[in-house]
Amino acid sequence: IYNNTIKTTAHGIRIYDTTNSKIFGNIVTSSKSSGGYGIYAANSSNSNQIYSNKINKFSNGIFIASSSKSNKVTKNTVNGTGNSGIVINSGCDSNSIDSNTVMNSGKNGILIGASKTSSVQSNNISSSKADAIHLNSKANVNVIKGNLFNVHGKYAIYCDKGSTANVYVNNY
């Protein structure tokens, strides 16, 4: 799925039970930040590459859910979401979030649920109303490294009780 311009108030791009796909070069825009997801991968959507997309508004920009594993979310620009810019939901293991730009999130820049996430590296996260990176209870992240944080309502990195992560060489 590539080089599309999508304007909607629902989900922009939605994949279910999809493997080894590439979603890139799309411009996905909503007129509101209170519904739908820019890119939504669910129901065991595994080993997909989501890269170089521009996502504006929506409730969440990129949302990985429902046991979706081993997806790579790289070099996307997410702006103006009502909730979080990028979300890895509980039970979605081995996903990576690298080299993205996330701006003006209504809550968190990046939200990791109770999952084993490979990496959150080299992201530029600015102007989140809550946390730049938020790890829910039981989240386990192999590495949070090389991220740049700028102007957040609460914390650069927040780890709920029971979460684990290797955190180093980030810039706030």
Give an overview in words.
The protein is an all-beta fold. 0% of the residues lie in helices and 46% in strands. It has no helices and 21 strands. The chain has strands at residues 5-8, 13-16, 22-24, 27-30, 37-42, 49-51, 54-56, 60-64, 72-74, 77-79, 86-88, 96-98, 101-103, 110-112, 116-121, 124-126, 133-135, 140-145, 148-150, 157-159, 164-168. The strands form three sheets. The chain has a seven-stranded parallel sheet with strand order 1-4-7-10-13-16-19, with no helix packed on it. It has a seven-stranded parallel sheet with strand order 2-5-8-11-14-17-20, with no helix packed on it. The chain is globular, with a radius of gyration of 14 Å. The model has no long low-confidence stretch (mean pLDDT 97).
Mean pLDDT across every amino acid position:
97
Q: SS-based structural class?
A: mainly beta
Characterize the largest beta sheet: strand count, sense, and whether it forms a barrel.
7 strands, parallel
Silhouette: globular
Instruction: Count up the helices.
Output: 0
Rg estimate, integer Å = 14 Å
What's the number of extended β-strand segments? Answer: 21
SSE string: EEEEEEEEEEEEEEEEEEEEE
Going across the major beta sheet, what is the strand order? 1-4-7-10-13-16-19
Runs in which pLDDT lies below 50 for 5 or more consecutive residues are none
Strand content: over 45%
Portion of residues in helices? under 10%
